[in-house]
Structures are given as C-alpha cells and as structure tokens.
Amino acid sequence: MTQSNTLKGIVFINGKPIYTYNKALTILELGSFYGINIPRFCYHARLSIAGNCRMCLVEIYKSFKPVIACSTPISDGMEVYTDTALIKHSREHVLEFLLINHPLDCPICDQGGECDLQDQAIIYGSDRGRFRETKRSVQDKYMGPFIKTIMTRCIHCTRCIRFTSEIAGEPILGTHGRGKNTEIGMYIERAVTSIFSGNLIDICPVGALTSKPFAFSARSWELRPVDSIDILDTLGNFIRIDTRGSEIVRISPRYNRNLDEEWISDKIRFCYDGLKTQRLTVPLLRKSTISGQRSYISISWQQSFQLISQLILQTLISSSSLKGFKFALGDLIDVETTLLLKDITHSLGVEAIPLSPAAKISNNDLRGNYLFNTKVKYMDTINLYFIVATNVVWEAPILSLKISRNVSTIKRDFMKLIGYIGPNLGSNNFFAYKHMGLCNSILIAILEGRHYFSTYITLIKNNVFFSNSLFCDNFPILVHFINKITNCKMPVNIIQKNINSIAAKEFNVEASHMFFNKFIKKHRVDILYVVGNTNTSVHHLAHTYLIYQGHHGDENATNAFLLLPSSTFTEKSSLYLTNEGVCNHTRQATLSPGVAKSDFDILLALSLYCNFNTTFKKPNELLLYLTSRGLFNISFSHFSNNITAILTKQAKATMPLNQINRFASVKPSIYNFYSTDIISRKSRILQLALNRKREHNFYDLRY
Ligand code: SF4
Ligand code: FES
C-alpha cells in the first residue's frame, strides 16, 4: 500500500479509529494493512477486483445491508464492522453455498492444510449440510504438464482467469455456462504455455489447480520451508524451498521487495528434480584401460589435492613458470568462490580465462557497465523501451512482467512504446512491440538519424535501453550506439547471461578478453581447472590436463581427468550478486550427496593444502572484506556517472561505422528457455514443458 503524507480521512473499523493517508483504498486493503482479518476468496492483491465470492461481507453504519469489503472504497468518517452477529451469519450462509458442490475429499487433496476454503470452513462452516440433492461434478481440464486440475473443487473465484489475462499474458481461461452449470475452462482445450503458468497453483484458493509434479508426494504440514533465491536468471528472485526429509519436493515464490513482485517462472519452480539427476558424489580419477576405454576410480579429497599440487609442481619445473596453468569460471558460481578464485589466481600469478564470449562486452571499471542503470521496481513507469537482441521474457522473466503491465496501458497512452530489434519473438512474447528488423542496418539507421525511432529516442523522456551480454558480435556498433543514447540520457541496461558473470565482472576475475576455445588455439595450456558447471564445452584439449569441479556431469566432465564433486545452490548458504547490484543469499535446504562440498570449501581446502599465498584463509575474512567493499549495499548513486566517458574511450578504439557489416543479423542469447543451464537441462519435468504444445493425452503425462 503506497501512502502520501497528507491525512485524507479517518475510518472506524470495529470502533477503532484508523487515520488514512490514501483514499484510493478499499475496506479490505485498509483492514489488511492494519491487521484486521477479513476472509476472502476471489480477492488477490496483484489482480483486478472481481467481487464474486461474497465472503468478505462487512457492515457499514447506516447501510441497509452488508457490503463486500474488497470492492467498497473507504470514505472519511466511515464506520465499518467486521465481526457482528449479522456478518458472521452472512458469511456462514455464503460458505454453505460454496460447499454445496465442493467434494469432501480433503484427506486426499494436495491443497489440504493450506486451503483457504478449509481454513474458512473451520471458522464459518457447519458440522452438517442441509443440501440433500445430488452434488454436481465437472470434468477435469488439461492444462499442460505442470498443472493438475480437479475442477469439481472449483469455487468460481475467477482468480485463474484474471491471472492468465492480466499477468501471464495468455488469456485462454474463461467461464462457460450459467448458474449451476458454470465451469472454468478453455474454449478450445490446450496446455497453458506461459512461462508463469505455475503461479496458477499458488493463486487458486482451493485444490482445483494443484501441482502435477508435487501430486501425492507430501502433506503440507510435513514440509520444512527454507528461504532462498532463484539463481537461474540474473535478477535473483526470492523463492521458498520446501523439503520433506532429505528431498526437495516443492519450490514456490516469496514476495521480493527489491523487485516488488511475487511471481516466479516455471523454470525455477519445477527445476528441483534436476538437482538430483546425474550428480557427482565422490572425486573421480580417469584411467585409460588397455583396450583404450575410459574408466574412473574414486579417490579421497586428500588424494585429489595431492594430485593437483603435483601437477602444479610439474608445470613449474617443466616450464619454470605457471603460465600454462589456467582457471575457468562456471555459470552458477557464488560470490565467495569467485572472490577466492581471484585471490588464488593472484597468489599463483595465473589467469582465469572466460569460457564464453559474453565476458568481452563491457569495461568492468564502472558498475554501470555491467549492472542495471534503472531499478527493476520502477520499470513499469517507463515511457519508451528500446530492446536489442534480447528476448526479455526468457532472459529476465520478472522484468518482462513489469514491461507487460506498463504496456497494457498503451491503448490509453500513446506515449508508451517498445521498439525491438532482433529475431521475431513469436508466441514466446506477451507484450505488444514494434519489430523494427533484425540486422545491424536498422541500428545504423537509428544512429545516423535516418530511422523514425531516432526521433522517439530523442523526444521521449524516461526511456531505457536493454541488450544482453552476448551482443558482442556487434560490439563496435553497440559502443557507438550506447554513446548516442547515453547522450540522450537513456539508461543502458545489459542483461547478463548468467548470475555468475556479475560477480566475475565486479571482481574483475577474468583477465583475458579472449574466450577459452579461441585462446587455446594460440597459447599452450597445460592444466585447465574449470570451477563449476558451464554451458560452454571446452575443445582442443589434446595437450591439456582438464580438472573439472561441478555438481553435475556434463560435456566438460566427460573430457576431464580429475572430477571434483561440488554442491548446488540448494545445498549451501552462499551469496549471489544480481543484475541490479543487490547481494542476495541462498540458504542450505538439503545435504550434498556423497562427499560433495561447496565450491568455496573445495578451493579453500586446496589453497590451504598447497599452501598458496592467499589473503583469505578463513570464510569470515572473506565476508569482512565483502562488507568493507560495500557489496551488501550498492546504491544506484554508483551508476550512470561517467558511463559516456568510458564508452567514448572504447568507441575511439573501435571500428568506424562504415566498416561494420550492415547485413549481419542480431542474435539473442537464449534459444530454449527450459535448457539454459545444467539444472534445468537435467530436469525431466522441465523437459516435458518443451513438448507441451504437442501433448494431447493428459493421462500419459501423469507422474
Ligand atoms: S480453478 Fe481455482 S482459481 Fe480458478 S476459479 Fe476455480 S477456484 Fe478460482
Ligand atoms: S473477496 Fe470480496 S467478494 Fe470475494
């Protein structure tokens, strides 16, 4: 609830005076803010008001009948009563009507224990019904691989209809029939394909829409919740991990005050089965058998460290320096590991080489070059979005919700615009945008002022620019371009490919501007130590000893000689730096399998074993350093200053406009939303989502 500082009136709730500073509130909103409980089913703070369940009835002084609190606005001097005998009686009758057709299957319902209807029935329900006729039953609907439907339980609150049309951008649900024949469903039955479809499970107040993968796996009171964050995109949205025993059985959203959102994407919600597939559990050493086939033997941590120290010594003896020893950072590495790795590379005088070309894009001297220069919280107030080469819906799903909410007002406000250059977003997108083309020539035309969008950029105030960190094929043009738009005071926001890239840039860990697969063609690499799973496979390793540290087996693990098992983000408490410059943290929800350890613990133990001359010898020394560096409270005042100056310097060193290939097309960095990282690729549930447009048989997909 936002409030201005001017007193707008006084409202009495149950005789208690409440001073209000905002007149645009309903009785229910004001009551909730002051902790006065008013029952509700159809009301949801993030959706429009429907007012159809009638459960929130309250009495207003001098009103001849009860009114609904969710849609009645407050007024000065209003006297509201929420707990009179009439109100209690009215709510009991409303509930009796809702329960007429609701099945009595709470013992086998997955919503049991966290069902709004069950909670209200305890307060307002009767121990017997008066309805003697036959209860109606409704056929279940098919909504895809994530959502299980038992439509007989539906109370027609219409939250799901409003969610799909107002938030998920896929208005496929509606009501059919009238009176007792009313049903919620689709006009043409098909799967819900929105990447936010899983949120339907949370907003349904009863057990009509539940999670298909979670079905019958646990009762809600058996779960242990742990607060954590989503590290599969760079905004670090807040999540809650529910575990039963040693297993993760559910992931759901938490309100995120930095982003002002409470939805999560299906990728993080359903990725949890990928956390236990193809895990490395013990250190493994590769041996070649006489027949030339690979075999692995398990070794202890001490033997692994001994082997690494011998390898380092051998390299030092054979080439009298450690030039041939390189590190590489994975995609999902935490802040502590990144900083410790930087410390180790400094102490040994070696380099960390970027595995992906994305590292090249920005100068890391200023935070404004790799962090957002606009707060995500305020993204829904922007007038012009200029998006180049990035599918915002896939690369920053929460950001796309903000944009879509703002753009849905386009019809009323002609000054709001989205200009997009890149491949057609097709059905993946859910907001209206002006598709200007997909090659460099459009960008150059805008730069030279020959395109109509140039005028918009110059004239419209309060605008933002988005691109992604893989736009480096067009690096020279981007630099020219950023110079132009920063002169127009348009904040530049580069969406990083993975959450680790931000900490890597913050600490300037990856020294080289040449990525590994190019680097190895020109330089000799004797030992490559890859810390963490990555999407990029390393090649040309004929003379290189590959050490791989990660939680899952992947292509790099197949090529490695020594494999060290590490923990996933759900098995450790670690820090992650988001694209907004906020330092969020995960909490340990489960134990690591086998003898796997966190990346930080492995590197720290290795550094102590080999006696590296590092600054950080204990975890708390590192945390003290991070605090002193102000990483926990980066403020937006750091950003935007001097960004033009630094980029102008880069532009001078870059290619003139007339030498740029005008017909080269702009490419996005993500081609498949459900396969962007090792965890989602290993998730069977998420891989089903890829097929959901082709699915026809609901029963084949039961878990
Ligand atoms: S399915 Fe759930 S959310 Fe949708 S109308 Fe029915 S009760 Fe409400
Ligand atoms: S919550 Fe008010 S009518 Fe449903």
Automatic annotation (TrEMBL):
InterPro entries: 2Fe-2S_ferredoxin-like_sf, 2Fe-2S_ferredoxin-type, Mopterin_OxRdtase, Mopterin_OxRdtase_4Fe-4S_dom, NADH_UbQ_OxRdtase_75kDa_su_CS, NADH_UbQ_OxRdtase_ferredoxin, NADH_UbQ_OxRdtase_Gsu, NADH_UbQ_OxRdtase_Gsu_4Fe4S-bd
Entry-linked PROSITE patterns: 4FE4S_HC3, 4FE4S_MOW_BIS_MGD, COMPLEX1_75K_1, COMPLEX1_75K_2, COMPLEX1_75K_3
GO cellular component term, pick one: membrane
4Fe-4S His(Cys)3-ligated-type domain segment(s): 86-125
GO molecular function terms attached to this record: 4 iron, 4 sulfur cluster binding; metal ion binding; NADH dehydrogenase (ubiquinone) activity; oxidoreductase activity, acting on NAD(P)H
Keyword field contains ATP-binding: no
Keyword tRNA-binding among record annotations: no
Domain (4Fe-4S Mo/W bis-MGD-type): residue spans on this chain: 223-279
Domain of life assignment: Eukaryota
Cofactor: [2Fe-2S] cluster; [4Fe-4S] cluster
The entry's keywords: 4Fe-4S, Iron, Iron-sulfur, Metal-binding, Mitochondrion, NAD, Translocase
Gene Ontology biological-process annotations: ATP synthesis coupled electron transport
Family, similarity comment: Belongs to the complex I 75 kDa subunit family.
PANTHER family per UniProt: NADH-UBIQUINONE OXIDOREDUCTASE 75 KDA SUBUNIT, MITOCHONDRIAL (PTHR43105:SF13), RESPIRATORY NITRATE REDUCTASE (PTHR43105)
Name of protein: NADH dehydrogenase subunit 11
Gene name tied to this protein: nad11
